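Chain X:
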Amino acid sequence: MKPSPLLFDGKHAVKCELASEVLRSSGTLRLRVMGWSMLPAVWPGDTLVIERIESGGVSEGDIVLFARDRRLFAHRVLAKGSPAGDSTILTRGDAMPQPDPPVGDRDLLGRVVFILRDGKCIEPSKTPRFSERALSAVVRNSEIAARVVVGVHGMRQTS
């Protein structure tokens, strides 16, 4: 039997709040990725190592973790700004068509310092290579392509 969507959303929200609290209190968090919004820099199943950071320590190209609507997002910083004296950053998932609404200081949780994949520790690049940008563009413009890419990647992982 499938869990009810409301039950799943409630459990997911509690997990996100707990992860946020752990990062705020200890300064470091490991978080397993479920989505594909950051393909190909971050794949489903990767584990992100995140360190707490204030918006002043963030620069363009960083991958940051932020909370919104009781969910967590790890997206790339496109720009920093401060409209009306409030410090904000503009982010977008590499494989997402539109930028996120601006992220304020209150929602920013940390910066991804390492990606753990297949037993390797990868330092995230601030500027994706041409091949990564091309794959992001394909995935950004086609959900079918995203599903195929994630499926092929999953098959490679199990063989």
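Chain Y:
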Amino acid sequence: MIIKINAQETFEGDGVVVNRLFPVAQQRNFDPFVLWDHFNIATDQGFPDHPHRGFEAITYMLDGGMHHQDDLGNDSFVSKGGAQVFCAGRGIVHSEMPSGKSPSVGIQLWVNLPKKLKKIDPSYQEALAKDLPVTTFQSGSYRTIVGAGSMIKLQTSITYQHFHLAKNGYYQLSIDQSLYAVIYILQGSLVVGEHQLDATQALLINSKKQQDFLIEARVDSEFMFCSGEPHQEPIYQHGPYID
């Protein structure tokens, strides 16, 4: 199954406009992924203190920087190419506010916790750009946020990467059997198999067997890729909680 979708503009936090893939009316989640927000936060906006439970969250910075504080005592800042990660577990309260004079742009991805781990203690990790491995190939590169070589460790096994692909360049992407995957276009224009994708469009892929996709760039492009095995458990999603 392959679904092509458009991100929808949504208001979140303290006046922040995000491009959201899910949850929206047409796509509530994509097990094990339960939220995908492409945000652009002005310096006078942000996400003041608010609670979460039942999932893990990755805030990956594409530009600018983000200041994270939580009730565990963590107080940290990451900038372009870095990531802030928390496991909400049984409950955490945190804030994410932009730092600097320019907008803060990034992706926030929520990954559901399996039922057996919903009540674990909350925790926090950060990784600066220098801590996340970059792999180069003939026509581009990718940074691994979660996966082989990354210092970030989650309770759910996923692969999460940020690709740069030069004009007329290509990359052969393989998705293993039984995985659910997301290909999201940050900027540019790509042809993925039989599908053309422009900025803020995505493919949601439910792979019943191993699938290989030739990804070709019509112009200099960037895209995000993530994949993971679904928990195949009911997802009770309400506001900041995933029960």
